[in-house]
């Protein structure tokens, strides 16, 4: 991906070759500015790669589509709509021709229950916490029944405890639905806890996939029990070594 800037062409990412298995939870980690969001936006179809393509189920991705739902860091909810209405809007858009009104209502409620939001369904975004807003974003994305869930630092703006709760919810939902997830994170512990594989990106310009670390820890995973597992610490160490020894943070 080359961006054309006032100071000339800037190659942000190059030769990103990545295969993600159906149902896998894959994290992308790398220093700030290395190109993680750029890669995610290309997969989402929000950005067109200068060269190269994205294949989903063997078909080329061209532009955004409901088969790839995105959860952003800043929950992008419509403030004048309730929690229910924010999710319902997406459900109506995707399922207008395939589900009846009653089915769309039930499906919206189901996704709110899945994300533990049923009790807050009539509240507006200004009346709920940051963690709950983020859950609405996740409910809305899941309700679209995407083949791939794309998450750009979904827990980045949350305090540590809320973050832990939400990570547990996401693990539970992933175990239940088995959807494919591509998630950007800055958090090594989060990446190891949630992922089946961690993609380590090198620094830009022309950032690329430096290494893919398979996370072979048994599921379901428990964050406290994992701290007693040698394999967990080995995997953490491998990611940390890549980030802080082999890819030093670029000068700001
Ligand atoms: N539209 C654009 N025009 C010009 N340069 C861009 C554009 N979008 C991104 N870049 C540059 O491409 C590089 C990668 O940006 P990107 O946002 O993908 O990084 P990132 O790894 O997601 O960063 P962070 O972790 O800080 O969110 C950066 O150097 C950025 O300045």
From TrEMBL:
Subcellular location: Cell membrane
Entries under Pfam families matching the protein: ABC_tran (PF00005)
Start and end residues of each ABC transporter domain: 3-228
GO molecular function: ATP binding; ATP hydrolysis activity; nitrate transmembrane transporter activity
InterPro entries (UniProt xref): AAA+_ATPase (IPR003593), ABC_transporter-like_ATP-bd (IPR003439), ABC_transporter-like_CS (IPR017871), ABC_transporter_ATP-bind (IPR050166), NO3_transporter_ATP-bd-like (IPR005890), P-loop_NTPase (IPR027417)
Keyword DNA-binding: no
Keyword terms, alphabetized: ATP-binding, Cell membrane, Membrane, Nucleotide-binding, Transport
One GO term describing the cellular component: plasma membrane
Database matches in Gene3D superfamilies: P-loop containing nucleotide triphosphate hydrolases (3.40.50.300)
Superkingdom of the source species: Bacteria
Membrane topology of the entry: Peripheral membrane protein
Keyword Cell membrane: yes
Primary location: membrane
PROSITE patterns: ABC_TRANSPORTER_1, ABC_TRANSPORTER_2
Family assignment from sequence similarity: Belongs to the ABC transporter superfamily.
PANTHER family: NITRATE ABC TRANSPORTER ATP-BINDING PROTEIN (PTHR42788:SF7), TAURINE IMPORT ATP-BINDING PROTEIN-RELATED (PTHR42788)
Protein name: ABC transporter ATP-binding protein
Taxonomy of the source species: Bacteria, Pseudomonadati, Pseudomonadota, Hydrogenophilia, Hydrogenophilia incertae sedis
């Amino acid at each position: 991906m080359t961006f054309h800037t006032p100071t000339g062409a800037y190659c942000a990412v190059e030769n990103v070759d990545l295969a993600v298995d159906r149902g896998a939870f894959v994290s992308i980690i790398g220093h700030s500015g290395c190109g993680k969001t750029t890669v995610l936006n290309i997969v989402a179809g929000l950005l067109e790669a200068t060269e190269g393509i994205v294949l989903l189920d063997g078909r080329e991705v061209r532009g955004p589509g409901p088969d790839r739902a995105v959860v952003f860091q800043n929950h992008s909810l419509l403030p004048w709509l309730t929690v229910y209405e924010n999710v319902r809007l997406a459900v109506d858009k995707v399922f207008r021709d395939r589900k009846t009104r009653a089915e769309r209502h039930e499906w919206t409620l189901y996704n709110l229950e899945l994300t533990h939001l049923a009790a807050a369904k009539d509240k507006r975004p200004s009346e709920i916490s940051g963690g709950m807003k983020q859950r609405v974003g996740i409910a809305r994305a899941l309700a679209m029944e995407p083949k791939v869930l794309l998450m750009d630092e979904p827990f980045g703006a949350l305090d540590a405890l809320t973050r832990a709760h939400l990570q547990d919810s996401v693990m539970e939902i992933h175990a239940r639905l088995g959807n494919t997830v591509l998630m950007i994170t800055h958090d090594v512990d989060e990446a190891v806890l949630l992922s089946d594989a961690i993609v380590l990106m090198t620094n830009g310009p022309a950032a690329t996939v430096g290494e893919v670390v398979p996370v072979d820890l048994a599921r379901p995973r428990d964050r406290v029990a994992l701290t007693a597992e040698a394999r967990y610490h080995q995997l953490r160490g491998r990611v940390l070594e890549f980030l802080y020894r082999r890819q030093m943070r670029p000068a700001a």
